[in-house]
Structure formats: C-alpha cells, structure tokens
Amino acid sequence: MTAATAHPRIGSVAPDAFASAARRIMGRCDDLASISAGEGRITRVYLSPEHARVNQVVAAWMREVGMTARTDAAGNLTGVLPAADPDAPVVMLGSHLDTVTDAGRYDGILGVLLGIEVVRLLRERAADGGWQSPFPFGLEVAAFSDEEGTRFGKALLGSSAVAGAWEDGWWDLTDADGITLREAYRAFGLDPERVGEAARTSERLVGYLEAHIEQGVELDRRGEPLAVVSSIASARRFQVVVEGEARHAGGTPYDMRRDALLGASEAALAVERICSSEHHIIGTVGRLEAFPGAVNVVPGEARFSIDLRGEFDGARDATWARISAELDAIMGRRRLRWAAREVHAAPALFCDPLLQDVVRAGIGATDPGAEPATLFSPAGHDGMTIGSIAPVGMLFLRNPDGISHHPDEAVGTADVAVGLRAFAEAVALLGEERLP
Ligand code: HGY
Ligand code: MN
Ligand code: MN
Description:
- The chain has 436 residues and is an alpha+beta fold.
- The protein has 2 domains: 3-233 and 349-434, Aminopeptidase (3-Layer(aba) Sandwich), CATH 3.40.630; 234-346, 2-Layer Sandwich (Alpha-Beta Plaits), CATH 3.30.70.360.
- It is built from 12 helices and 16 strands.
- Strands 1, 2, 3, 4, 5, 6, 14, 15 and 16 form a 9-stranded mixed beta sheet that branches. Strands 7, 9, 10, 12 and 13 form a 5-stranded antiparallel beta sheet that branches. Strands 8-11 form a two-stranded antiparallel ribbon.
- Strand 1 (68-71) and strand 2 form a beta hairpin.
- Helix 2 (15-33) crosses helix 12 (413-433) and helix 8 (260-276) runs antiparallel to helix 9.
- The longest helix has 21 residues, at 313-333.
- The protein is elongated, with a radius of gyration of 23 Å.
- The protein starts with 7 loop residues before the first helix and ends with a helix.
C-alpha cells in the first residue's frame, strides 16, 4: 500500500508546522543532553538520578500535548492519549531515553520526542475538525528506560518488562560498583516484586512504531532523508575471561609467559576477521581490561566483551561457533584458559509488512514518486522485545556519517521536519487501517 498523496488529515498541515516542531525537537534534544552523569558529556543510565530527572522533564512535555504520563513499575515513562471509544485500537510510538557512556544526543531521544510531536499534530487536527471524531484510536508514547544495557550489561530491560519478558535471573546483575539490579530498583523507589505490573498485554495494541536515527551510513550515502526498516539484527553479548599467569615483566622469558592480554588481543582480531568475512554479521570487542594492570607485570588475567549481531539468528550462532573454535585454538597455543558468559541475547525482529507499508506510504507522502529505501538495522532497538506483544515498524532518519554512540552524533533539522511528516502520516494510516 503506497499512498502517493498525503493523508487527508496530515496533508493539510502547514509545512511550517513541521519545521517549527522540528526546531522544538532539536532544542529539547539539547535540553535533555544536559541531564547527564558526566560534566561535558552525555551519560544517562538505568535507575540513575539522571533517569529520574529526564522522566520528569519528558512527562511534562507529554502532558503539554494532552497525554497522561506516568512512570511504570520498571522505570519506563509512558504517555497515553485515549481514544473516544475505550475499546478502540491503540498505536504505541516510542523509543528510549537512556544512553551509552559519552553518548550522542539523538539515539533514542529523537524517537520519543517525534512520538510526542505526532500526538500534538494529530490532536490539533482533531481539535480543528480535521478528524471525524476526537480520536478513532488511542495513542501511547513509550519512553523506555534501558535500551542500551549500559549499567548492567543486559540490554532492553525496560521494554522487556513491558513485553512481560522479565527474567528473575536478572536481579543479581551488578553494575561497575557491585550494586545489584534489585538494589538499584529499591534505591530508585521501585519495588522489584512489582516489576510484573509493567507488563502489558497485546490487547488492542495494533502496532508499535519507532523513529530512530539510522546509526549507519546508508541514507547519507544515498542522499536520502528517510528509510523503512525491514528487520532489526539479533544480538548476543558475552563477557569473556582469559586466565594466564602474572609474572615479572623483566625476568620472565617469552617461552615461559602465559600472557592473558595477548591472548585476548589475538581473540579481538579474530572476531574482526571472522565477522568481516560474513554477510550482515557484526562482531565488536568494546571493552578490554588487563589484570593486575601493572606496567611491570605480565598480565595474568584479561577480560573483554563481545557484541555479536546478525540479520538471522542461525547465521549469528554459526559465527559464534566459529569464533569459539578460534578462541580455543588461540588460548590453547598460548597455554591460556578462557570462558565466556552470555550477558544478553535477543532474536532478530522482522518488521510487520503492514507497518512497513504505512511507513513507506508516510515517506512517499513527503516525496511522491520516490521509492523509499528499505534498510536492515544492525543497531538494536526496543522493538526487538515489543515485537512479542505488537507488530513493529520503524522509520530511519539520516544520520550524517553514521556517527552514533558518540558526541558527534547528528541529525538535520530539515530531516527531522520531513521525518515528522512521514511519521505522522504512517501513524494516521495505521490507526485508520486497524479501525474495526
Ligand atoms: O547497541 C545498539 O545497537 C543499540 O544502539 N542499543
Ligand atoms: Mn544506542
Ligand atoms: Mn537507540
């Protein structure tokens, strides 16, 4: 379904309404960037004081467009604008407000703010009679609290709670200070026993639509502002420990050394070599530590992370088997021991065909005649968990140079304006398409 013409209720919105909304969004991304644990950089992790503060600020913006806003039992912030009919279908929009360490200001945040502006637009259309009834379908904006997994290593904690997929084994996860997830819940004012209350059923939930910067270079290279997302890469994350023997850096001959750092370093290069030879398999060693970490001691232990993604779960798992075999060979050759602990896993998510269509139609309405790009997302998103309770669709916005998870992360105000138009079109089309 590609609606070449604008949706009747969105098409009549004055173009400068999108431009002024885009300017508001960009300013608010700057506002939220200042709510951070670190001076001069953006770091906002799950259940932190910054998490509490950003929920307060965004809740006010949700209320400004007529939504009720509340923080759920897992720390997610949800805005709700009910339909006139309490049994009407609901369209959920959203993304996440948490960040990686030293992050950019658009990853996640942009999608939450675009969702709020779509509600503002659709409500104004209803207010000025642009809509037959106050609201034929309900709208929700989910501001998920932990998509990145920065603090506890396990990603998608917030949206997992909403999807009813919480696992009790997660309570004993610890952060860098040894604080458990359970202790962090209590310190934040949440009751671990009540996390199940954040779960919602799929009842009346006809779709989850997320707008997000691409976090890749495809749109920049094509010179296009927007794309439809076809699927989201599956993910597996491991914490690997390598054990050798700490010895004197001067007195230990090479043939006697069991240097854990060198074993880990060879392993990191092996991850790159194996994954780069595969299609849509991406492996990254993002953290590597040597112990005891003294300049004059051969490292007796090394710990490193592996972030492994793939378009298809099977290909990802086959690649993990190849990496494991290679690590066995490397560590055997160096007389080292190694063990990997899996700290995160999420299957690939294939976006719903109808939701892909409404996003494609929304983009088409902004650029009639063009054939919008359809891209695979190697970046993970909350739709990976929400997909178990609702069909998922995603809209990508151009991210110059693909820089993300970095302070230089960027998005153009003009792209945000055209992205808002496309997103609003898609939501209106989905809502109407799913009306009884
Ligand atoms: O890591 C990711 O792909 C996402 O940005 N959390
Ligand atoms: Mn991210
Ligand atoms: Mn993100």
